[in-house]
Write a structure and sequence with these properties.
320 residues, alpha+beta, Pseudouridine synthase, 2 domains, 31% strand, RNA binding, pseudouridine synthase activity, RNA-binding
């Protein structure tokens, strides 16, 4: 069921607390005839597409009002009721804003798609707290006087380049994650692999789990999580193939591990593949993403041009 218009009806409510004036903002929703009989909880989850975590947060803050009064989640709605939802605004970025270059491929009110360069982390991890896409994006938003937690919807390995989606708020993140689960959010990758792939197109369905001895690696494991990768050969060179890949699942290292398992490891991949004089990182690029617009529901497709090192590697493969 398509979401109703959500953010047009937005109004402030002034309240006094501890002797100080505070202003709360609410999103207001008029209940239509077709949604009469829904419980408040069902309406929040299925129509407004709020996550369970966000509903819990709203409940704790008494941020759900029905006709101006607090309400319990199992209360049934009537047509023409007004449901008002507290705007849980972000108070920080979640990372330290840091000046740095980002390439915005697409932006609207709900999300951004950035072009990640190779050798950069998507977000801080371990002892790396600076120099990531998340740090640079926080600075980009701060310069525009926007306070929003940095929410990557999916991630790429440090050495992989290409499209990464960031949601601008928790509701958008939840909807995009649902699109990922339902496979209406699609990701396409290009990879250069060793060998002439046979058959030239197919599906790799091999479960992935922890490596038995190396904590930073993954392994094909019959007790692991289902993992499905579709591939198609775009070009064949002497002893090298250029593949296009689509994911049904998004496990850690999935493409790299699946291709190595198939016998066609990614060139430049020092963990699962083979080193190459043509490129100093794994030749894997998140070529494009497509998803449904979060308000108007039409399809958006965003493409990340091949970076110079990847394009040069293809040229080297093509030389006699």
């Amino acid at each position: 069921m398509a979401p109703t218009k959500t953010w047009e009806n937005h109004y402030p409510v002034a309240i006094y607390r501890e002797g100080r004036l505070k202003v709360k903002s609410y999103h207001r929703h008029k209940i239509s005839q077709e949604h009469e009989g829904f419980t408040v909880e069902n309406y929040l989850k299925n129509i407004l597409q709020y996550s369970g975590r966000k509903i819990q947060k709203l409940t704790r803050r008494k941020g759900i009002l029905l006709n101006g009064k607090t309400v319990y989640l199992q209360k049934k709605l009537n047509a023409e009721d007004t449901l008002s939802i507290l705007d849980l605004e972000d108070t920080n970025y979640g990372v330290q804003p840091e000046k740095g270059a980002i390439e915005v491929l697409y932006e609207d009110d709900f999300l951004l798609v950035l072009n990640k360069p190779a050798h950069q982390l998507v977000h801080p991890t371990g002892q790396t707290t600076r120099g990531t896409m998340a740090n640079y994006l926080a600075y980009y938003l701060k310069q525009r006087n926007v306070v929003s937690a940095i929410r990557p919807v999916h991630r790429l390995d440090r050495e992989t380049s290409g499209c990464v989606i960031f949601a601008k708020d928790s509701r958008s993140q939840f909807i995009l994650e649902q699109q990922l689960k339902e496979r209406t959010l699609k990701r396409t990758y290009w990879a250069l692999v060793k060998g002439i792939v046979h058959p030239p197109s197919g599906t790799i369905d091999a479960p992935i789990g922890p490596h038995p001895s190396l904590a930073n690696r993954r392994a094909i494991n019959e007790h692991g999580e289902q993992s499905i990768t579709h591939y198609q050969t775009l070009r064949s060179f002497p002893e090298i193939s250029l593949l296009k890949l689509n994911l049904d699942t998004g496990r850690t290292h999935q493409i790299r591990l699946h291709l190595a398992h198939l016998g066609y490891p990614i060139i430049g991949d020092r963990m699962y593949g083979v080193r190459s004089p043509w490129i100093n990182r794994q030749a894997l690029h998140a070529y494009d993403v497509s998803f449904r617009h979060l308000k108007e529901n039409h399809e958006i497709a965003v493409h990340a041009p091949l970076p110079t090192d990847f394009a040069q590697a293809i040229n080297f493969c093509d030389k006699p």
